[in-house]
Amino acid sequence: MNDDDDFLAEAFRRQLGGTVTVEAIRAIEGGASCVEVWRDLDASGFVDAMLPEAAGGANLDLAQAFPLVQAAGEFCIPVPFAETMIARAILAAHGASIPSGVPIVLAAPSPTIPGARLVHHALIASSGVPTLVVATGRGDDVFGTGGATAIDPGDVLATLPGDTDTVMLAAAAVASGLMAGAMARVLEMSLRHAGERQQFGRSLGKFQAIQQQLAVLAEQVLSTQVAARNAFAGSAFDPVRVAAAKCRANEAAGLVCNIAHAIHGAIGVTAEFDLQLYTRRIKQWQLAFGSESYWGARLGRARIAAICDTTADFLRLHLSAGVA
Amino acid sequence: MFIAGQLGNLPAHIRARTWAGFDADFSRAMAERGWIGLTIPREYGGAGLDAFARFVLVEELLAAGAPVAAHWIGDRQSAPLILHYGTEEQRRSFLPRICNGELFFCIGMSEPNSGSDLASVRTRAERVEGGWKLNGQKIWTTYAHKSHYMIALVRTSGTSEDRQSGLSQFLVDLSLPGVTVRPIMIGTGDTDFNEVFFEDVSLPDDALVGVEGNGWKQVNAELAFERSGPERIYSSLVLLDLWAKLLGPEPEPGDAARLGRLVARLAPLREMSIAMTALLARGASPITEAALFKDMGTEIEQQIPSEIADAVAMRPELAADPELLRTLAYLMQFNHVFSLRGGTREILRGMIARGLGLR
């Protein structure tokens, strides 16, 4: 990450600190309209950050946009911000017009589609072609976050070049980035709680058993962040990079949530405590857009198909961020 | 090409030893190509290349399963230590000989009563007329019996109660009178390990490396090199690649997923190793990062043989490929060591906790 990325992500975090409060998240989960939060986000311009400058954007590439996705996860944004940012970038890249002022979900095949109940537009793969449609969420919101089990497509607004994989890759990459951000916040909350909560006359963080658990938590978060960042590289989402990222994020998800909740104890799952806002979403993204076995099988087949003598060669050629 | 040529038809179960495989001739052939001491300046006999060039080379060697143990310690940590902390005379004396494959080094850290509690070492060097007198014992010293020098962490003042202060590092010529090296045989019959005894060993004045009493800090800098390299993720790679090859072009979904999940674990770790290479090259000492990396890296190194054992034996009616079986069995009998060598999991997690501000 360079200094510009830091600067942009920090500005975005300041913006989110003002608009995406935990009160707003709870209100939206409780059925309140997300229009106000969305309007503020849209007006901030960050959701257009990947559009060309002529279209009012900052022309960010995937790598530059990654810190925004991660920040969105850290703040548990209750509307599909990152999804819309990526959807708008895909639409703009193909010269399609962007529906003004509205959020868009990435509705790739998935048992649950985060945010689908909160929006009226979706990018789907229809007959194998990426298509922007008017959409209505259908089925249960099983994580209580505004998701749906499917969408009913309405009018077709645009069809784009690409294949069935285009939306899947974007959706899984975004989910990985959001998971990385949410996990970083969960680590921060767990460290804070371990420092504050006293048992047996001292803070939890002083117990070696807890320290070892927090070390594992930190490891899982760090490797997920590295893997997710690696999915945001180049000019379009690459199947191998996305597979590695979603696979890693999914494998980490269970461990991260288990340790964070173990450290918090019962208070962590209560409605009034913030931890569950994050961990429920981590679980939602874990289930969405392909499991570790789905992406693992794709990655494994890519490894076997690659003309590489060793897995080290494969990592260097297909999964490296640069230098070596 | 050179590596493949040197390895010839070395079977996978031998190549699986990678940096535990000792072959002096291989190391000398590497030296002839200028491949030892890649990052050491040319004036000291090195190649004067950057840390990334070494990363690329080391990764190739490990992935191919080259027997690099003979020059491994000297190349990875002794030469950088001498370059950084040594006197000009020490640099001129030792570095060219490490780079040309003449001197092999071993690590003198653990003692019978100082395992994870390294600061409690009791081996002692006393100042005497014209030098130092060394007494004590080191243990679990890999390839001491085939090395020329040990860099030993010993006490030069105070007692083991003084913990991190009063420790210093010495270059110990293992051919000196009073040095006894005794191999330790492990359950598999291998004798890579040794006990090393020092009985009134006379060391010259210039055997001291760096500053007297600064040994703890120096050893920790050395450990950052020891814990951050690709050898902490690739110890089971020869097995993984042999298994992947045997899966053929159309693997079953379960096998493909198993392979992919392991690759997905390795990918971010490799990125971390590269990032630490950059930090080390800038003179930083990423101790916490190296602990995080090594803890996760050795976990995947240990998991690869377990996963492949599961994959092979989930179809008990099928005969396993004999070479796959030999390679798997070697690693299954050795992989528990991966999280011990270079600092145990529990110690590393304690260091991470310190890095997180908990200690």
Structural features:
heterodimer, A: 324 residues, Butyryl-Coa Dehydrogenase, subunit A, domain 1, Butyryl-CoA Dehydrogenase, subunit A, domain 3, 2 domains, 4-stranded mixed β-sheet, two-stranded antiparallel ribbon, 55% helix, globular, B: 359 residues, alpha+beta, Butyryl-CoA Dehydrogenase, subunit A, domain 2
Topology:
The complex is a heterodimer of chains A (324) and B (359).
Chain A: H1 3-19, H2 22-29, H3 35-44, H4 62-74, H5 81-93, E1 105-106, E2 121-126, E3 129-138, E4 150-159, H6 164-196, E5 198-199, E6 202-203, H7 208-231, H8 239-264, H9 275-287, H10 292-305, H11 311-318
Parallel strand pairs in A: 1-2
Antiparallel strand pairs in A: 2-3, 3-4, 5-6
Helix pairs in contact in A: 1-4, 4-6, 4-7, 5-6, 6-7, 6-8, 6-9, 7-8, 8-9, 8-10
Chain B: H1 2-7, H2 12-15, H3 24-32, H4 51-64, H5 69-85, H6 88-99, E1 105-108, E2 124-128, E3 131-139, E4 149-155, E5 167-173, E6 179-184, E7 193-204, E8 208-209, H7 215-228, H8 237-246, H9 253-281, H10 287-313, H11 322-332, H12 345-355
Parallel strand pairs in B: 1-4
Antiparallel strand pairs in B: 2-3, 3-7, 4-5, 5-8, 6-7
